[in-house]
Amino acid sequence: MTKPTVNQFVQMIKDKTEELYGMGTDEVTNNDLYYVVCEIVNEEINQDWAKTEKTYKQEQPKQVYYLSMEFLIGRLLESNLLNLGMREVCNDALKQLNLSPEDIYKEENDPGLGNGGLGRLAACFLDSIATLNYPGHGFGIRYQYGMFEQRFINGYQTELPDYWLKEAYPWERRKVDEAVELQFGGSVHMLERNNGSLEFRYEDTDKVLAVPYDVPIVGYNNEIVNTLRLWNAEPVTSIDPTTDEQSYFKQLKNNHEIEQISSMLYPDDSNDEGKRLRIKQQYFLVASSLRTILTNYKKETQQSLIHLPEKVVIQINDTHPSLAIPELMRILMDEEDFGWDAAWEITTNVFAYTNHTILYEALEKWPVKMIQNLLPRLYMIIDEINERFCQSIWFDHPELRDKIAEMAVIADDQIHMAHLSIVGSFSVNGVAKLHTDILKNQEMSNFYNLFPDRFNNKTNGITHRRWLLLSNPRLAEVISETIGEHWIERPRELNNLLRHTKDSALLDKLKEVKKKNKQDLAEYIHKTTGILVDENSIFDVQIKRLHEYKRQLLNIFHVIYLYNQLKDNPNLDITPRTFIFGAKAAPSYYVAKEVIKLINTVASVVNNDATIQGKIKVVFLENYNTSLAEKIIPAADVSEQISTAGKEASGTGNMKMMMNGALTLGTLDGANIEIKDQVGDSNIFIFGLNAEEINEYYQNGSYNPNEIYQNDERVTQIMDQLRDGAFGHDVEFTDIYYHLLSTNDPYFVLKDFDSYVEAQQLVDLHYRDQDKWLSKSLINIAHSGKFSSDRTIREYATGIWNLQKQL
Ligand code: 26V
């Protein structure tokens, strides 16, 4: 396809505006113009999309389906323009019409269909799959309400509903003719057919219509468009208006219950609670997706399902979609007449499972009763899977006999979804080296002993197209000026920057880029919070979900310590710093919400205290999401990755900030370790206990935070300030004080405090030598190519999925 020139694009915008609104471009709003540009882009996409689908139909390649309860795709207009090679043309055309591209792009609602890292990873993966010419698609849920909008009132987090669909979403296409009908609840009866086979008959089930909305996933510069299919739950029948009043209201209530299924994203990524609606959502996703996958397989290949694993691989994103395993068994046995063994052979060659957490509270376990009730036939199958699995250990692996209870899929009236996922898949992967090692040697060691070949590592990645090209155009340009544009297609070539670490002209340009990005962020901070920050200060950034294990508390303890020092000595020689936070807490996570209030409280004290001469400022930006991340990351100097070692599976914000030239201040956790391996010890600030040491403390119980509280004066002061209401808030934070001591500080905040402060002092010192700092920053950028999700996806495609590129 030939791309339009600027002048042609100008004309297209004018024509489309006339067509849609009957007006000129100077008479319509930015919102109107947003839809105009989307229409133009959609016309381009539709052609490539149809072409891609046709190729897949003809060539029948093996395809991967990525099942995920979350996709945090971010705004799509600018990224679609970028991937289509039309961004510059569009920007120039808009400017020619005296319009601001940025103002038009930000009209788009950022769909918050995910909680955090897991959902954003899924989005980066789809971008890389399409870009690398792999046939692969996402399946998710079209939640009516996405991640809540966060507002601070009086320093407290409050949550507002995110009804992101109130304006039309231009990227989705409703495909009502591909809707599928699903059943929940009721009862199952087993009947024997004449030929001796079994039939399962369902009675009194609730029926739900799953209607797909397809979103195009545009590859970069390759005319490939894959699909993200998002399911919407709707009633199968509309209400009969002639019915009597009682039955009318009953139907109304029923229909409402059905629509509930896709109504909202669960905003809690820290707690596995047995919630009926969440199971319904999970089954809704997997049952409708499997139906699409199998229907397409049959239509296109005309082959028996025995060959399914040759054409289909399904990656399940954490255990959330793991009901797909028993659901495929059900379809194969009850609808397709396979026996158990054949069905199991097919199923276990189709599924691959990614684990994203080892936090016990977040490992999914469903009460048996609930699954029995909602999905009676699936429960029978899970029970059989468990039975056979336990038997196979007993007979084939007598050495593991005493581990059966620990490994069972069903134990203590609960279904362990991680166990089900491991037993039912051919691949189990962790998301960073350390994380995979912990899975193999600790959390899932019994399973690793049983199935050593099943376990593998796939270190996470991020799409450098969104996280550098799109969000940091200034840096992208300087890179291209220096080493050419090859890095865009082959991000490993960012390595070529290493030849320029002493090039002072380049370092000057880098400095200029960071400065401008910081000015932009400072302006945004001023506009949204009223806080004036020093653009020459260190921008020290921690942006991620609020969790105890991520230790935002450690960060704010250091801020309080600095503030205390400055109060003692206002002339203290420190490099000015701006501490920037962004984080949402799960609405029911009390401690996390208290930490938010604490950070906001410290911020208002610090920012309004003239005696410290503005040497430190604290900014907590509201409503952290993908679009806000795109603003903050290009401006970061320091990337805070300070989780308790062994707890953060990988992290991906660490990769994004590294790619944008920030230096990591972090623990030896998750992918930080691999970042350190890339950049070397002198280009990263590492502190704190390592995972092994933490483990030893857990094992021998010898950690005593009270000792540190008593003996480290800095800690004593901070803790007492919390207890005594030193920040003008009575005793609000005594809860944090008592929580830390009474739970024995399970995340080692006090234990790591000293080494964190020391690392922070090093940051301060190193920043003073700007040339050195800039060359460290350059080294980080140069090594960030490894963390492109293109690398990750290649590893999945060759190591797990066995996919061929479509050329
Ligand atoms: C957990 C749960 C628990 C049950 C209720 C609903 C719910 C929803 C989401 C989650 C997600 C927890 C797992 C997660 O987000 N893991 C993160 O995955 C990132 C991508 O692999 C990784 O970089 C982060 O380190 C990891 O915490």
TrEMBL record:
Catalysed reactions, as listed in the record: [(1->4)-alpha-D-glucosyl](n) + phosphate = [(1->4)-alpha-D-glucosyl](n-1) + alpha-D-glucose 1-phosphate
Lineage: Bacteria, Bacillati, Bacillota, Bacilli, Bacillales
Cofactor(s) listed: pyridoxal 5'-phosphate
InterPro entries assigned: Glycg_phsphrylas, Glyco_trans_35, Pyridoxal_P_attach_site
Molecular-function annotations in GO: glycogen phosphorylase activity; pyridoxal phosphate binding
Name of the protein described by the UniProt record: Alpha-1,4 glucan phosphorylase
One Pfam family this sequence matches: Phosphorylase
Modified-residue entries (N6-(pyridoxal phosphate)lysine), positions: 656
Role played: Phosphorylase is an important allosteric enzyme in carbohydrate metabolism. Enzymes from different sources differ in their regulatory mechanisms and in their natural substrates. However, all known phosphorylases share catalytic and structural properties.
GO cellular component: cytoplasm
UniProt source species: Paraliobacillus quinghaiensis
Taxonomy, superkingdom: Bacteria
Gene Ontology BP terms: glycogen catabolic process
Keywords per UniProt: Allosteric enzyme, Carbohydrate metabolism, Glycosyltransferase, Pyridoxal phosphate, Transferase
Gene3D superfamilies linked to this entry: Glycogen Phosphorylase B
Entry EC no(s): 2.4.1.1
Family note: Belongs to the glycogen phosphorylase family.
